[in-house]
């Protein structure tokens, strides 16, 4: 199986809740786009996928349906996922009869049915062979950790749909914990906060924008941003000034769930790993690790060093690519 991944027809895919990335050995990352597909319901046909599909979300006309094949790290709709993978394969296709071998990086907590759905979606989408690797391995390899050694590496991955913390050693997972709460839930919490406390409705895009621009877990200086909203009392659109204080209030309960997840993991660490982990700290990855001050907040709460990887959004795909290319990691690949 591993030798198949060394052919020119082999690719690694990070199929994330919000973002899909594809890596080809010798070329690097060849696709990086939102995990989104849209259909024309009048013609019952495919309409668009990737960034242009995602941009239409919430602004789509009646006959276009914008769909997200994944929810919380797992395939939410198999038919939609198959159509999406087919589009991804068409984009990277080298010929009409192109049938690639694919290594897919998936969350470590997927059950066998969820893993089976990923394999089925890729095969029906046009892959010849499909192998899986668990995200924590990809994440650690993406930041050049030597996970084959008898030395603990603790990886905290906070993406869009899943937060996962795993302890790795000797090319295996010693223990892991996960929570299906991550970046998208922070956006939802912001929407709910403004609905309940300010009687206004904001879009998903604006909620994500507020999180990225005003979310700050260490600097509590008040910052504001103007957004266009719908007033739930008058039912009319209006301009509204959102503050960093509001964003902070909205997201903190969920951020504290991520702290508790990490705390539970640290409290259950086998003693043999204590030295390794306290020497090196926690490796923080996933797009949500870019929430300003999250690393310092975790570090202060848990009294341990927290190091954000160099490239949180591309770390997993780079690691999956490394696993494909380096025979030391062939045992990490499975079905
Ligand atoms: N600067 C930022 N501040 C806060 N959050 C951010 C920032 N940049 C990206 N994010 C969040 O990162 C998340 C996307 O991360 P990532 O691409 O790692 O997730 P994914 O792989 O699609 O999801 P998952 O691994 O959970 O299936 C989104 O929720 C996005 O809002």
Automatic annotation (TrEMBL):
One of its GO terms (cellular component) is cytoplasm. Forms polymers. It is found in: Cytoplasm. Keywords: ATP-binding, Cell shape, Cytoplasm, Nucleotide-binding. ATP binds at residues 208-211. Belongs to the FtsA/MreB family. This is Cell shape-determining protein MreB. One of its GO terms (molecular function) is ATP binding. Forms membrane-associated dynamic filaments that are essential for cell shape determination. Acts by regulating cell wall synthesis and cell elongation, and thus cell shape. A feedback loop between cell geometry and MreB localization may maintain elongated cell shape by targeting cell wall growth to regions of negative cell wall curvature. Pfam families: MreB_Mbl (PF06723). One of its GO terms (biological process) is regulation of cell shape. CDD domains: ASKHA_NBD_MreB-like (cd10225).
């Amino acid at each position: 199986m591993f030798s198949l991944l060394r052919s020119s027809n082999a690719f690694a895919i990070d199929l994330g809740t919000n973002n899909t990335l594809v890596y080809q050995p010798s070329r690097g990352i060849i696709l990086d786009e939102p995990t989104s597909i849209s259909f024309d319901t009048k013609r019952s046909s495919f309409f668009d996928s990737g960034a242009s599909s995602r941009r239409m979300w919430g602004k789509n006309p009646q006959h276009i349906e914008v769909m997200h094949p994944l929810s919380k790290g797992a395939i939410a709709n198999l038919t939609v996922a198959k159509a999406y993978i087919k589009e991804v394969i068409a984009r990277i296709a080298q010929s009409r009869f192109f049938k690639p071998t694919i290594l897919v990086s998936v969350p470590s907590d997927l059950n066998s049915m969820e893993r089976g759905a990923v394999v089925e979606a890729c095969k029906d989408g046009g892959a010849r062979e499909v192998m899986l690797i668990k995200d924590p391995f990809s994440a650690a390899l993406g930041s050049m950790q030597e996970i084959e050694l008898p030395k603990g590496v603790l990886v905290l991955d906070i993406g869009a749909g899943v937060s996962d913390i795993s302890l790795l050693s000797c090319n295996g997972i010693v223990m892991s914990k996960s929570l299906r709460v991550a970046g998208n839930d922070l956006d939802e919490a912001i929407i709910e906060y403004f609905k309940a406390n300010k009687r206004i409705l904001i879009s998903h895009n604006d909620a994500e924008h507020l999180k990225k621009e005003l979310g700050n877990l260490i600097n509590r200086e008040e910052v504001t941003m103007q957004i266009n909203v719908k007033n739930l009392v008058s039912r009319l659109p209006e301009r509204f000034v959102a503050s960093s204080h509001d964003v902070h209030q909205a997201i903190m309960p969920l951020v504290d769930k991520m702290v508790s997840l990490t705390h539970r993991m640290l409290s259950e660490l086998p003693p043999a790993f204590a030295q390794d982990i306290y020497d090196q700290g926690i490796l923080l990855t996933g797009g949500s690790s870019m929430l300003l001050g999250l690393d310092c907040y975790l570090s202060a709460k848990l009294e341990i060093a927290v190091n954000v990887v160099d490239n949180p959004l591309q770390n997993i795909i780079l690691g999956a690519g490394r696993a494909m290319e380096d025979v030391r990691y062939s045992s990490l690949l499975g079905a």
